[in-house]
Amino acid sequence: MSTVVTAGMPRRSTHLGRSIVGRIGFLPALLVALIVGMSAIDPQFYGLINILNILRNASLLAIVACGQALVIVAGGFDLSVGAVVALASVVTAKTMAATAAAFPGNTALVIASGVAAGIGCGLVVGLVNGFCVAKLKVSGFVVTLGTMSATAGVGLMITSGIPVYGMPDSFVKGFGRAQLFGLPTAVYAALAVIAVMMFVQRRTLFGRYVYAIGGNVDAAVVSGVSIQRHIVGTYAVSSVLAALTGILLTAQVGSGQASFGGDRMMLQSIAAAVIGGVSLRGGVGRVEIVAISALFLTILGNALNLLHVDSRLQPVFLGIIMVAAVALDELSRRSKARV
Amino acid sequence: MDVVTDLKPAEPLLALRGISKRFTGVRALDRVDLDVHAGELHVLFGENGAGKSTLINVVSGTFPPDEGTFQFGGEDIRHLTPQRARAIGISPVFQEFSLVPSLTVEENLFLGREITRGGVLHAREMRKRATALIDELGFDLDPSQRVDDLSRAHQQMAEIAKALLGRVRLLILDEPTASLTERETGRLFELIARLKSQNIGLIYVSHRMREIRALADRVTVLRDGRHIRTLDAATSTDSELVELMTGRKIDLLFPTITHKPDKVMVDVENLTLADGSVGDVNFHARAGEITGVAGLVGCGKSELIRAIYGIEPIVSGTVRIDGLPYEFPAPRRSLKHGIAYFPANRIAEGLALSRPIRENASMTVLDLPAFARFGVLRQAVERTAIQGVMEQLQLRPPNIERTAGALSGGNRQKVMLGRALTRELTVFLFDEPSVGIDVGAKLEVYEFMKRLVEAGAAVIVVSSELPEVLALSNRLYVMHHGQIAAELTGAEKTEQNVLASFFREHLVTEVA
Ligand SMILES: Nc1ncnc2c1ncn2[C@@H]1O[C@H](COP(=O)(O)OP(=O)(O)OP(=O)(O)O)[C@@H](O)[C@H]1O
Ligand SMILES: [Mg+2]
């Protein structure tokens, strides 16, 4: 016994070192390579406007991807996030326009009601998703495919495809397009979301149970974890974060549009999660790495634009990178033994 | 089971020289030598985590060794894959099963070597061959059943049958009896004797001394990944083997437990389960004593305690805990009532393999204020508590931040047991508590139960290992076909009586 303990000690540092590499992987290296390469090729890349643009888009994607990651860690899937972004956008804009007409001049009320309505409809979609998965035992893939379609339909119905205007100036100019210490508000929102989600994953019961459920549902049941509540929780968080993204996007653009988010954002959020090391088998994944991977994907898209790669070709790159990430994940699993 | 005998008798069938294998942070094998002759049963003996399964994985091509050479049938083997291993006659039965749950037994048997005619599956031929094999093995197994509908014992039989399909020269059995009961074990032993007479070499891993005594020709002892010694089974004693294995002297006796039966903690009346596995059972367990439940595979013994814990649906009957009716049991509420359950199947129901040991061990206690306040975990408390518990259970390697999936079979069991030590509990339901753990750890578990009962807890032990339940329990129920066949106490509690109740029905039908 004692020989094992003493022999185990010196190995600890190498073990730690390896596990850090194993956890974050080569994503930061890829990111740095991409940034250095692009800076060398195109000076436009490190122009202030481009950087702010990248940060803004990466922030929005990171917020959605954090929610997506949580759902996937619990062993689920959320296809409805893109549609929720759109719905939250139009609902927020419509509500603000309506409240502004009813209570002209009361900006605080207008903004509060709009934001509440946007977040509220996200919460409703999330709860519907969660209940169908947890109670009716329909797979997350199917449920969210359904709500995606329904949500997108509602968004189109509300607006008939026309952008919704009529939001207070203080919401658009004073919040959406504002900058604090040179950075857009979306960046602060994303940092706050990431920080909270990191805390949730590491330090809260909810986060721990989500890992346990994704790791082995039956074991979690036997251990007395209430499964349904936590599954509903993951979908609710995911949809609410998507709604938040919709609101940020609305404030930034200045109008509510049913074309925000959509399939593209949904696919990107899944890609960010998967490239960020979230295992589709559940039980594994950290939001901070997902956020880095969201940044990576955004820069990649930006780089392809700057290099004038055909926009129809860009999804091909995304696809290849995603498959490669999953393949690497599997490869690292293959060396593991059967005990 | 085609048998090939093209070897000179003196030459070993399998010869390993200087095999080493490292995993992150652990040297699982350190220059191990091993010879297995045709017609010989060679036991690998060692503590949990000694490297037995790793060695077997190397021999069967799951992963390559880091260094060392490997000869099979006199030929050098390099770049072995599982497929090639099978093709040259190396057939492993792994400790954790390699069956596809959603396929039938027959589909699993032929997986990867289906019989086809012009690219079309030849179902009839495969059915015929599968049935013939299963009949020959004497297993009571239906080839058309889906694997996930089978009990663990039947899955084990399917796994063994799968290994014996086709040409076999070396059969590897990693704790094959861990989930079998007396009857199936007997069948397996007969089978092993037949295989030996057909000149097949066998590698056999077990933690049960009785089996090693009954079967082994030679025993190789491993400790911490190193080859300690290879001995002739006939001339070595149990205590000698255990001493070599652990590096210290160990008393191989069951602990003497002083039972002080007190009030009835668990009282089950006319219990019937939805799936019919338990019918109209009356059963009780008192605080301060160990209540044993024995029975053959499929007799409903583990379903009984699973129902009490709330995992199997009940259709009628009542459960009372500490005198109060406990309706609609569910795991979460059971834990609140002070009931803990330790499942037999560590992989399916026990552990989240991708998560660290610490998280797995603390899963049942996190709702307590000591571990989480307002939904926020108190990590320092968690770490110290789990570290202490796992030290007590002698987890090895003793690092609680590794993932549960990187642990050896027996150490996984220790992680599960660790859960019981972290919470204040009064009723302990053990389902096959010593499956897969080494002799030293087994004694730890028994000592652990002894401490629990002597501190006044009610302990219920369901076990297929007869000597274990006989020695531990104060009162022993024997179940048969979902019903209580006998309740034995004191001097009646003998192996003969238990076996008699197992088979009473058969006798009755014979007499009639
Ligand atoms: N995939 C893996 N990754 C990391 N470490 C591993 C892995 N598989 C096994 N190990 C380690 O290798 C060592 C040997 O494990 P092995 O499974 O061979 O033990 P064993 O002798 O079969 O034990 P048991 O009797 O408990 O089955 C252990 O320390 C274990 O933790
Ligand atoms: Mg093993």
Q: How many helical elements of chain B?
A: 17
Oligomer: heterodimer
Name of the top-level CATH class of the largest domain in chain B: Alpha Beta
Poorly predicted runs of chain B are 1-5
* Bound molecule types: adenosine-5'-triphosphate, magnesium ion
Based on CA inertia axes, which overall geometry of chain A fits? globular
Note the gap between the termini of chain B.
39 Å
The CATH topology assignment of the largest domain in chain B is Rossmann fold
Please summarize the sheet with the most strands of chain B: 6 strands, mixed
Number of strands of chain A: 2
How are the secondary structure elements laid out?
The complex is a heterodimer of chains A (339) and B (512).
Chain A: H1 2-24, H2 27-41, H3 48-73, H4 81-102, H5 107-134, H6 140-159, H7 169-176, E1 179-180, E2 183-184, H8 185-203, H9 205-215, H10 217-222, H11 227-253, H12 262-275, H13 287-306, H14 314-334
Antiparallel strand pairs in A: 1-2
Chain B: E1 14-23, E2 26-36, E3 41-46, H1 52-59, E4 67-72, E5 75-76, H2 82-87, E6 90-93, H3 105-109, E7 116-117, E8 120-121, H4 123-137, H5 152-164, E9 170-174, H6 182-197, E10 201-205, H7 209-215, E11 218-223, E12 226-232, H8 238-246, E13 264-273, E14 281-286, E15 290-295, H9 301-309, E16 314-321, E17 324-325, H10 331-336, E18 339-342, H11 346-350, H12 357-362, E19 372-373, E20 376-377, H13 379-392, H14 409-421, E21 427-431, H15 439-454, E22 458-462, H16 466-472, E23 475-480, E24 483-489, H17 495-511
Parallel strand pairs in B: 3-10, 3-11, 6-9, 9-10, 15-22, 15-23, 18-21, 21-22
Antiparallel strand pairs in B: 1-2, 1-4, 4-5, 7-8, 11-12, 13-14, 13-16, 16-17, 19-20, 23-24
The structure holds adenosine-5'-triphosphate (ATP) and magnesium ion.
